Amino acid sequence: MTIIQLEYLLAVASCGSFSKASELCFVTQPSLSMQIKNLEDELGVVLLDRSKKPVVPTQVGAIVIEKAKEALLAYNNIKESVAELKGSVAGKIRLGVIPTIAPYLLPRVVQSFADKYPKVELEIREMTTPEIIKAMDKDELDAAILAGGTCPERITEHELFDDRFYAYVSPDNPLFARTNLRIEDITGRDLLLLAEGHCLRDQVLELCSVSKNQENTYTFQSGSLETLMRIVEATDKITVIPEMAIPYLHEGVKDRVKMLARGAASRKIVIGVRRTYAKESIVGALRDTILEEEKKKTSPKGWN
Asked: Is the domain 3-74 a CATH 1.10.10.10 member?
């Protein structure tokens, strides 16, 4: 029995497919299949039901998979412990980041982190909050950067910083003439929202006290804040954007950004970590890098 065989077994169980697992593990499908077959021969049991699509673990396979997860966690912890004893931050972290954070925070952080910690392999996936939680439960992610208060108890949240909300208003909307907007002035008919599954959607709905079922002129489902802003510019609508998005706006549209006159109009950005995850030095290094980059950022001029 080898670590590679256990990794391949977990990959197939997660993907439900030998072909997808081979792509994930960067190995040919015959090689992956052979390693799993060798593992089954050594244990004298069938671990995967290949007759079903997707492929699923057998009853004994499910037990072996849980033990394999524990074994791989212990194996990775050994390397992490040795690295910490040497005073080195090294290893691999699989990181999920929600779409309303990824395009604005990662460009400021990734290269700085790589320069400071060249021995850390950072694997990043952009995912919605429900996808992140599901992936963490399946041991496909080690940690995530997301909005605070959205993780279940089995995931520990480490606070990073507050990210204020601003209104992004079309010049054709009557509220455009105002510098500051009151939350109660924004109606459901004016407001464009992200698609369901994005925590920012729920936060905005709660902030604006808008019913999820309130009728609108039309329904538009988008996973992209950039798309919503383009629609605002082409219509008379309003959307809500986080402060971290503002520096990426070109000067010609920054007059569309309006401060929300409400103290609680913000979200807390956190790193969520599985409670069984042991690479504290890597998480700490990532947190320190994010906080350092955040200190360099200046608040939007005139919107303090």
From this structure: yes
